[in-house]
Request: fold
Amino acid sequence: MINYPIKKTAKSANKTVSAANRGMNFEAMINQTNEFYLNNDIAIIYKKPIPIQIVGVDYKRRSAAKITEAYYKLPSTTDYNGIYKGRYIDFEAKETKSTTSFPIKNIHIHQVEHLRRVKEHGAISFIIVYFSKLERIYLLDSDYVTEYFLRADQARKSITLEEFEEHGYLIKEGYTKPVDYLSVVDEYYLKEKS
Reply:
């Protein structure tokens, strides 16, 4: 069940920000958006479960079993995948408190490689980064992320906000769709088919 706070808006920089979205964690914002897409038969996008190996369980009683020790089975790929207008979508979602850049240590090379590989097979793949202090959300295509990781000069350890502004797409926040990334997918990836 989702509890909706009273909708208010506040001016911030050059956009209107929904006060309902501030304070909601980024993953919950994406999950609410995906629920809206699913309930309105727009798309089927799910958060992937993280594969874990359970090695210890405390069984005080069956109804209150508690996992006491678990390990990741293997590195996970990306956070979300699904289908939209007949196209497979795969993306990683990240949040940063920085107001100037996104540290690349927050995304792993196996995730970048996964995004590259699914795109080679016809998928739409990207990362979504939430600059929480700026209250801005950007979609950045996996080609740019892959290119960044493959650059010979790895002296820089982050992708700058200016790069997101130049090469990425600002995702507008909404009330029922807090992270309406499919509007960007329509405009950037599917515009020739619409």
Summary: The CA atoms of residues 104 and 157 lie 6 Å apart. Helices lie at 26-39, 109-120, 142-150, 161-167, 181-189. Residues 9-189 form a domain with the Trna Endonuclease; Chain: A, domain 1 fold (CATH 3.40.1350.10). The mean pLDDT is 82.
